[in-house]
Design brief:
This protein starts with 18 loop residues before the first helix and ends with a strand. α3 (76-109) packs antiparallel against α7. The chain contains eight helices and six strands; from the N terminus they run αααββββαβααααβ. The radius of gyration is 23 Å and the shape is globular. β2 and β3 (124-127) form a beta hairpin. It folds into two domains: 10-73, Helix Hairpins (Orthogonal Bundle), CATH 1.10.287; 86-109 and 142-293, Cytochrome c oxidase, subunit III, four-helix bundle (Four Helix Bundle (Hemerythrin (Met), subunit A)), CATH 1.20.120.80. It is mainly α. It has helices at residues 19-38, 44-69, 76-109, 134-137, 154-177, 181-207, 221-252, 262-288; strands at 114-115, 118-121, 124-127, 131-132, 147-148, 292-293. The strands form three sheets. Strands 1-4 form a two-stranded antiparallel sheet. Mean pLDDT is 85; it is low at 1-5 and 124-130.
Length: 296
């Protein structure tokens, strides 16, 4: 009878967890707080939502680590499935960036295309008035008067930082496989530092941008496509940095072995994905679409 509940298979039947619903509620509060903050309201709800999201991440990570390190639930079969899941997750993230690149190239390759929107009222189409991209771009890209970033200054520095971080996380991975825990820790530490440095420099870049996000702030469609693409990537850098920081703490706690380290491997895959996306952003938005460079 004592063996009645023993695990006789290689699959992990996950116990009920409160963190998915708790995380969804936290993200909703964060989103509402962000919207209110952008409209001039207090940042209290934004801070509460952000704190709840961090709490969810901590508690959910705690449970997953227990499953892997103490309960032995991450069998070789489960690790294979985890890898498939991570591959599909990264593929879904690729499609997010496809949307931003699509928007950017659609307007940059066809800056003078006209659009005649209509609305239907009682089955009768009524024109809302002719709207053309030429009105905001003057038929060229970037729009006339837009002061873009010099790609060979701060953007190039950030590119080199991310490429260097890709080598340090690879060093950490090879050190782990070879059983060199000291190299693993140092590689992860350097990667986290470089990730934080990239975020700081991107924030500095945003503060010195010669264009705004939307029309209300004096911006145009260039600012919208630029900030959506690079800002969404910046968010991924922050997520990747936090994840790698967790992997660093786990490595310092003695977690991971040369044969079982999916958590670290998934974080490394994600970081390489972030690196590759940035190379496309740098080549397309900063270099190919550069107009009149500013001071930065």
């Amino acid at each position: 009878m004592g063996d009645a509940h023993a695990n006789h298979h290689d699959y992990h039947l996950v116990n009920p967890s409160p963190w998915p619903i708790f995380g969804a509620i936290s993200a909703f509060i964060l989103a509402i707080g962000a919207i209110q903050f952008m409209h001039g309201s207090s940042a209290v709800m934004l801070g509460v939502g952000f704190g709840l999201v961090l709490l969810t991440m901590f508690l959910w990570w705690r449970d997953v680590i227990r499953e892997a390190e103490k309960n032995g639930d991450h069998t070789p079969v489960v690790q294979i499935h985890n890898r498939y899941g991570m591959i599909l997750f990264i593929a879904s993230e690729v499609m997010f960036f496809v949307a931003w690149f699509w928007a950017f190239f659609d307007v940059s390759l066809f800056p003078g295309t006209g659009v005649d929107p209509v609305q239907t009222a009682g089955g009768v189409e009524q024109a809302l008035g002719q709207v053309t991209r030429n009105e905001v771009t003057q038929g060229v890209w970037p729009p006339v008067g837009t002061e873009t970033f010099n790609p060979w200054k701060l953007p190039l520095v950030n590119t080199l930082i991310l490429l260097l971080s890709g080598t340090t996380v690879t060093w950490a991975h090879h050190s782990l496989v070879q059983g060199n825990r000291k190299g693993l820790i140092w590689g992860l530490l350097l990667t986290v530092i470089l990730g934080v440095l990239f975020t700081i420099l991107q924030a500095y870049e945003y503060m010195h941008a010669g264009f705004a996000f939307d029309k209300a702030a004096g911006g145009n469609i260039y600012g919208s496509t630029f900030f959506m693409a690079t800002g969404f990537h910046g968010f991924h850098v922050i997520v990747g940095t936090i994840t790698l920081a967790v992997m660093l703490f786990r490595a310092m706690a003695g977690h991971f072995t040369p044969k079982q380290h999916f958590g670290f491997e998934a974080a490394a895959w994600y970081w390489h994905f972030v690196d590759v996306v940035w190379l496309f952003l740098f080549a397309c938005i900063y270099v190919w679409a550069a107009g009149t460079p500013g001071a930065h």
